[in-house]
Amino acid sequence: MLIALVTLAVHRIQLHNESIDQIDLFSRVPPWPVYTALNWWTQFVESTIPYYTIPPVIQMFKNNLSYHVSRSIAAVAKYNVADHIGHEEMSTQQIAEKEGIDADMLCRVLKFLETKGIFAQVPQKKCTFRNNRMSSYLLESHVNSVKFMAKEQLIEYKLFDNIDEIIRTGVTESYRTAISSAWGTDDARINFGKFMSKVTVMSIASIVEEFDFTPYKSMIDIGGSVGQVLSRVLERYPNMTGVLFDIPQVVQDAKQEWSQDHNLERISFVGGDFFESIPSLDPITMKPIDLYFMKMILHDWSDQDAIKILKQVRSAMSINATLVIAEASLHEGHHVGNRHSDIVMTVIGGKERDTEQFNELFSASGLKLERVIHLRSPLMLTVARPM
Prior knowledge:
- By secondary structure, this protein is an alpha/beta fold.
- It folds into three domains: 85 residues, Arc Repressor Mutant, subunit A, CATH 1.10.10.10; 50 residues, no CATH class; 187 residues, Vaccinia Virus protein VP39 (Rossmann fold), CATH 3.40.50.150.
- Helix content is 49%, strand content 13%.
- The protein contains 16 helices and ten strands.
- It has a seven-stranded mixed beta sheet, with helices on both faces. A three-stranded antiparallel beta sheet has the order 1-3-2.
- Helix 3 packs across helix 6 and helix 7 packs across helix 10.
- The N terminus is likely disordered.
């Protein structure tokens, strides 16, 4: 405990000339001692301290009611409340007029969130609020904004309404169809892309720093969204070319994102379905792709579907190609948030996996595990080669 506290204190002192609220925490890869200490401290604060200081019945009461807090945060994110307030103060009546919502109801929600340290009511002014340190993270312009994550919860809440049925029957085909519909709208797809862009920046930085891409001339990012990983890799490795592979709608979004990128001439955009086929040649060089990459893709799918995807990958790979999978690590003590990720995957029919489970998928797909790299982020890299 003492070592962890000292490590965190030293790291905080190193940042003393910067406001902690304005540091881009997502893009910084912490030193291993700091990363380990943060994980330990989070577990200690969330589990150990309450266990010994708060009566269990009170803890269970708070856990049962925590839904009210997260749901209220999602609602104010949906209606851009923090953005409307900005760095000034604003009444709920003014916000309501801008968004076409009920001013009194919004006031009650904000008063509730104020009890959790989120937003601050202006004294002597009825239903008038300003942003505080906590609510400022709901500003879209904040360097560490969580606004898109909060809005994403609006879909996840609907999915969790059925978790009791999922526990009874598992995820059925009709339920998976409903899930696809929930995320199938343009607004949902765009928000999800922005959400993933923000929360995975730290993981991307860690991937680029801790995996050596030097031996590879070309890379395909399978299900690569708008290309955040490829952008960082191509920036750091100027001799590489990249292929961004995703469904056609997402590829169109990606082309817009890349329109001003100076590495545009080194990337190819390919739309398709990874259940049907995956490119084997780089469209720029017309040579076999030697690095296949997937980040947070397989965890969306059951073992059966994951094997189907991996078989398509193996079919596209040359005998000398490499597959790198970036997914949450379920190894004990690695990152406390990954069990949260696993329970979300439960309701959509997927799962987070440990090394043994990945090995089973590889064996069924014509691949063999080569090594595992634990990152200074919630993810681990699982490296595989053709059998």
